[in-house]
Design brief:
146 residues, alpha+beta, two-stranded antiparallel ribbon, 4 helices, binds zinc ion
Length: 146
């Protein structure tokens, strides 16, 4: 029984040992099959995704020349990637600033124990006060990795 390849659209006959085969045996179509499978896997399975990203990073570290060559041959990829990274850095920076504002109202606020009280809607202090210990957090900025 003949089927239609999901990649190239040509009719093909599945092998008896793989009756559910949906791609023909052409190497290009098999690559496409793996690519789609990986994409689907990445979207659905965060463990797989983390692992996959780790593997790619490790692989890239072990194959620095591949990436150098790839970048040399694909300048538009580098530009796009740099833009994305800058957007990510920008976003991360905004998040850090927002966090600092909350956790560190004044840069001069020294560590120590503070008494805090609730200010009610009419401007008076609520009945209860709390002693809290405040330790300013060190905020560490990640280095740019592009
Ligand atoms: Zn095909």
């Amino acid at each position: 029984m003949s089927k239609q390849c999901q990649s190239c659209g040509r009719p093909f006959t599945p092998r008896p040992q793989t009756p559910h085969q949906t791609y023909c045996t052409h190497p290009e179509c098999q690559r496409e099959r793996r690519r789609r499978w990986q994409q689907q896997k990445r979207q659905g399975d965060s463990d797989y995704r983390d692992n996959d990203i780790r593997n790619s990073k490790t692989w890239a570290l072990e194959n620095p020349r591949y990436w150098k060559q790839y970048r040399d041959e694909n300048p538009e990829y580098v530009g796009r990637n740099r833009n994305l990274q800058q957007q990510r850095n920008q976003k991360q920076r905004s998040a850090l600033i927002a966090n600092e504002d909350v956790s560190n109202p004044s840069p001069q606020l020294p560590s120590g124990r503070y008494r805090i009280a609730r200010i009610l809607a009419d401007g008076t202090i609520g009945g209860q006060t709390w002693i809290v210990e405040i330790t300013p957090l060190m905020v560490q900025m990640d280095g740019e990795d592009v």
